[in-house]
Amino acid sequence: MHVIDRRQNPKSKSLGNRQRFVRRVKSHIREAVKQAIQQRKVADLAGSEKISINASDIREPTFGFDRGLGRRDYVFPGNHGYQRGDRIRKPKGGAGSGKHGSPDGESEDPFIFTLSQEEFLDLFFEDLELPNLAKRKLKTLAATSRSRAGYANDGSPQRLNKRETMRRSLSRRIALRRPKLADLEALQDELKVAEAEDKQEESKRLREIIERTRGRMRSVAFLDNVDLRYNRFEQTPKATTQAVMFCLMDTSASMTESLKDLAKRFYMLLHLFLTRHYRAVEIVFIRHTYTATEVDEETFFHGRETGGTVVSSALDEMLRIVKKRYPIDDWNIYAAQASDGHNFDHDMPRTMALLEQEILPLCQYYAYIEVGDEQTLEESVLWNGYSQLTDRHSHFARASVFDPADIYPVFHNLFASSSRAA
């Protein structure tokens, strides 16, 4: 049987009205989503979001006369304090109901509603020019598999577990002392011998015992409904391997907040991609200047520490963490490095050696994202140094991002390569 829901408003929700409302206040929602992106953690991208909008922004437009122009005569009934020609002072500010919530007047609370996960992702990917096909791909749910979960007292005949059923039947027959078929056959053989020897008393006694034995066997069934056991199954997530995502970022003085925001959006996309392929994904944040340290996400994006740039320090820290916590036999290792391309010249040989000889053999995929100015790309030390790695290693990729709209086209190329590498 198939049930098709043809209602215009499924689940008792006014879907049409909601969509019209979202279109009407889309500019306000877009600004709220941008603020939410700055406040959210990398792992919290795929979720709903509570949006607050000023009540004055959702009012219906009205037409009225402009009272500030022209001359008008007013009639106030019950006037006892003014004569014709008197000049009336304007009321002082703050009297009456103010729109901004004055202490002497009334104000309106902001209008708050919640964006669903799909609506939030649509707005998040909107300025990244995400194709609709890719959107649906990112929103697919993790697959599940059927696994054994003990036994049930009822079920379909094809799930009957014969071994468990017979084991319980035997236990019940032994507990209730049901006579065995061999015992009945032995009594019948004794009866034949007694009848052959014409022992009437013995034959009569054996017939009574045989009748009681048959009655006992009929009262205690060989197989009863209480013995039946069926295989029970449950839907459980598919067993998948686990992955760790290393986020490496240059936090020197040249990395401004806008460049860090570009990097954060890329990290969000990468985490969203990994969670669709792996059941368990851990994130490790490593920020570096002259030295590198593992930090939490808040410090990673908003820390105040600045200085020069030594990229090899971040690679050393990543190697240390992998050897300590993430054995390569148990973990799929991914890494994403974001930088504006700066590095000391004396550090480049060590950086290249660490990447090619130690980091890349451990990783499933390594992506380098350069954020900054397009005009300085040709002068970038890291960009030119990493160019030789792209030809020798298929699981290493580099890309440049200069605007939020460039992030998804860049990520889409890395996305396809990651699927093949994984």
Helix content: 40-55%
Highest-level CATH class of the largest domain: Alpha Beta
Q: Would you tell me the structural class of the helices and strands?
A: alpha/beta
Largest sheet: 6 strands, mixed
CATH architecture group name of the largest domain: 3-Layer(aba) Sandwich
Integer-rounded radius of gyration? 39 Å
**pLDDT averaged over residues:** 75
CATH superfamily of the largest domain: von Willebrand factor, type A domain
Distance between the termini: 39 Å
Percent strand equals: 15-25%
Shape verdict: flat
- Order of helical and strand elements: HHEEHHEHHHEEHEEHHEHEHEH
Please name the CATH topology of the largest domain.
Rossmann fold
Main-sheet strand order equals 7-6-5-8-9-10
Unreliable stretches (pLDDT < 50, length at least 5) are 95-105, 128-141, 417-422
What's the number of domains?
3
Q: What's the count of strands?
A: 10
- Count of helix runs: 13
